[in-house]
Amino acid sequence: CTGNGICKCRVCECFPNFTGSACDCSLDTFPCMAANGQVCNGRGTCECGTCNCTDPKFQGPTCEMCQTCLGVCAEHKDCVQCRAFDKGEKKETCSQECMHFNMTRVESRDKLPQPVQPDPLSHCKEKDVDDCWFYFTYSVNSNGEANVHVVE
Question: Coil, helix or strand for 39?
């Protein structure tokens, strides 16, 4: 019974919060909780402690990543700009508002992470305050940590 129940007459009797023939399905929804406090970001169902995303545009451990949605790049543009280049609209408030992601600098665009990795990844091309393009990627790993790679 995978340590989550007691076997009686070849049938598992599961402890509270577990179900399934081998008590291998957790009913705990905490691992499915998105940053907004909703289970699976309101875009999926929590099955055995894992999100099953029902909206095909959304993916990731809590159905929060959307590759085709507008917004991931624009949402993080000002924070990436102030952290990487010390300029932009959030320059003055950068240390308070923009520390929610790990940042790695890379030499060129071909050194940015590619979509072959397991974590959902957004490639971004945004204009800075000087009307110049800058490039970065935004991804969230299975631990919910946001990672940004930015071209120097």
Answer: strand
User: β-strand 146-151 against 133-140: which pairing, if any?
Assistant: antiparallel
Do 32 and 78 sit in the same domain of this protein? no
Residue that terminates a domain, selected from 36, 66, 96: 66
Q: Are 48 and 41 in contact (CB under 8 A)?
A: no
Strand partners, 105: 150
| Main-chain phi, psi angles of 142, to 5 degrees | -65, -15
Q: What is the DSSP letter of 33?
A: B
Model confidence pLDDT, tens digit, residues 49-84: 999 998 888 888 898 887 666 677 888 999 999 999
Which domain, by its residues, includes 79?
70-151
Q: What predicted TM-score, i.e. pTM, was given to this entire model?
A: 0.54
